[in-house]
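pls design
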């Protein structure tokens, strides 16, 4: 019985690790949504071609929120400013920069009603995909347990626990989704 409990704990840990990856991906996706409110997270994945290397923007500049809809980027070296501007314009983020010579300003426009509806639609699609991934993980681990456990009562206990964990992760993702949608509608 001890071996079965150890296997169960290991399987549940593996399952939770995979579900955490989906949760973290969803959090990151939601944090990068431009809603007309300045947030430096939208620049997290931006890299700049510098010294024949791709370097993350955070390693070569300070990035701050100036006010509700303005982000300021101040490079550590002045000669990098055009490279940063070029990287932002080439990226698929869709931001427009204002180069003052020493810093870059990114002014985020207010959302139109049409853009809000589009963002809500995209969020809904991402939510459903995340839920499907979580359910697929649940299905996979139910199969693993079914193959490794002969006793039907033990199988049902494990299955119940797996379903509970899956519901918890779905609730976490839905809470993130609802919070972001309220923020989008409110602005």
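designed seq:
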């Amino acid at each position: 019985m001890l071996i079965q409990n150890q296997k169960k704990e290991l399987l549940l840990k593996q399952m939770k690790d995979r579900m955490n990856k989906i949760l973290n991906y969803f959090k990151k996706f939601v944090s990068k949504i431009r809603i007309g409110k300045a947030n430096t997270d939208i620049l997290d994945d931006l890299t700049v071609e510098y010294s024949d290397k791709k370097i993350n923007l955070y390693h070569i500049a300070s990035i701050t929120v100036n006010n509700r809809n303005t982000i300021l980027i101040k490079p550590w070296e002045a000669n990098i400013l055009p490279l940063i501007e070029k990287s932002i314009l080439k990226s698929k983020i869709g931001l427009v920069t204002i180069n003052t010579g020493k810093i870059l300003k990114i002014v985020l426009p207010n959302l139109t009603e049409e853009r809000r509806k589009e963002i809500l639609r995209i969020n809904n699609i991402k939510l459903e995909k995340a839920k499907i991934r979580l359910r697929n993980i649940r299905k996979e681990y139910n199969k693993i347990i079914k193959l490794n456990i002969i006793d039907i009562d033990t199988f049902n206990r494990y299955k119940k626990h797996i379903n509970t964990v899956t519901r918890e992760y779905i609730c976490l993702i839905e809470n993130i989704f609802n919070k972001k949608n309220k923020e989008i509608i409110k602005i």
